[in-house]
Design brief:
Length: 261
């Protein structure tokens, strides 16, 4: 890398780490930066996955208090993310990337709408449970079979494709009853880190990494993740939710244009 390429790659990774810590969508900064630096697309995708893994860990650590509120349920989310990441990786080997890519805009749009109206959806779910005589967990722990299945689907998506996984995870967690925006961010970062771990291990074993670019991105993305977590803590909840919806809508538009036009 020359100086210009290092600045582009490092700057892209810093922004990606910060955006992933706050709302997701960081891939749209880091992946194009690698392409601009001349890294081949497949190697850029692999290097990006490995580079974003430590940033997810540092983001989850920054939210360790929020993540630890429901330890048993959080452990279940981690296990689902691990299993889903492996399943998604195997699915990638057996399925056409082009065929699945046509579904991505619809998945992102659905996730954004679900997150934007997660409060209304949660109230509808609660009303439906009450009507059929079901009650929530006495200790206030989030979850439910339907929500966990959705979480597993998100984990499979993350292992297979990855881009926009943060938005989908936020939607899945919000529907399961997590209404605190800081807890949402912490759990999103933790589950994303598990997915990145599976992907990173796969790409490292396959030897598909550009290590000079990856090592630079690891350092700058971790700094960006810490900065993003600090900014997210200071933003009013309503503005952070609006930021999440705006990022999700932007991702949806980008993928619709990329896929269908």
């Amino acid at each position: 890398m020359d100086t210009t390429q290092a600045l582009v790659v490092g700057g892209g990774a810093f922004l990606a780490g910060g955006m992933n810590a706050m709302a997701g969508g960081g891939t749209f900064f880091s992946f194009p930066a690698l392409l601009a630096a001349g890294v081949p697309p497949v190697m850029a995708n692999a290097s990006n996955s490995v580079a974003m893994w430590p940033a997810s860990l540092s983001s989850a650590w920054a939210y360790r208090r929020e993540v630890g509120r429901h330890p048993r349920w959080t452990l279940l989310l981690v296990l689902l993310s691990f299993v889903g990441g492996i399943a998604g990786g195997l699915l990638l080997l057996a399925t056409s990337n082009a065929a699945f890519a046509r579904l991505v805009p619809w998945l992102l749009l659905t996730a954004t709408v679900l997150f934007a109206f997660s409060g209304q959806v949660s109230r509808l779910v609660a009303a439906a449970k009450a009507r059929i005589g079901l009650r929530g967990q006495a200790d206030g722990t989030p979850g439910g079979i339907g929500g966990l299945l959705f979480q597993l689907c998100v984990a499979i998506y993350g292992g297979f494709f990855g881009a926009g996984m943060g938005i989908l995870t936020l939607a899945a967690l919000a529907i399961q009853g997590v209404d605190d925006i800081q807890e949402l961010n912490g759990l999103k970062n933790l589950t994303s880190a598990v997915n990145y771990t599976v992907a990173a291990a796969t790409f490292i074993v396959a030897g598909a990494i550009s290590w000079p670019h990856t090592l630079l991105m690891i350092a700058t993305a971790m700094l960006g993740a810490l900065a993003g977590a600090a900014v997210a803590r200071r933003l009013p909840a309503v503005w952070l939710r609006r930021l999440v919806v705006a990022v999700g809508a932007s991702l949806s538009i980008v993928y619709f244009i990329k896929t269908y036009f």
